[in-house]
Amino acid sequence: MIKNYQILKEQINYSIENSSLDIGAAYFIMKDIMNNLEHLYYAQINKECLENAENNEREKKDEADNAEK
Predict the structure, then answer these.
(1) Does 69 score more than 70 pLDDT?
(2) Alpha carbon distance 8, 33 (integer Å)
(3) How far apart are CA 11 and CA 32, in angstroms?
(4) Cβ(21)–Cβ(29) below 8 Å
(5) Is there a contact between 23 and 30 (Cβ–Cβ < 8 Å)?
(6) What pLDDT was estimated at residue 50?
(7) Is 4 helix (H, G, I), strand (E, B) or coil?
(8) What separation in angstroms does the CA of 7 have from each of 17, 58, 64?
(9) What global pTM score does this model have?
(10) Domain layout of the chain by residue ranges
(11) Could you tell me how far CA 31 lies from the centroid of its own chain?
């Protein structure tokens, strides 16, 4: 993971340095990318929470069904 982090960081730095953008434009683009990542992050967390809730409901139902038998 650390290696992937280093590679991504170097690629981003390289892209910014060679883009001919001024620092303000590069900053705006990075903020936009971070905003998109934040949305993806929270969408992933919501998906995982929903899956956990569904699994918990399924387990409770299975336990109730087994208790009836």
Answers:
(1) no
(2) 13
(3) 17
(4) yes
(5) no
(6) 96
(7) helix
(8) 15, 41, 50
(9) 0.62
(10) 22-69
(11) 16
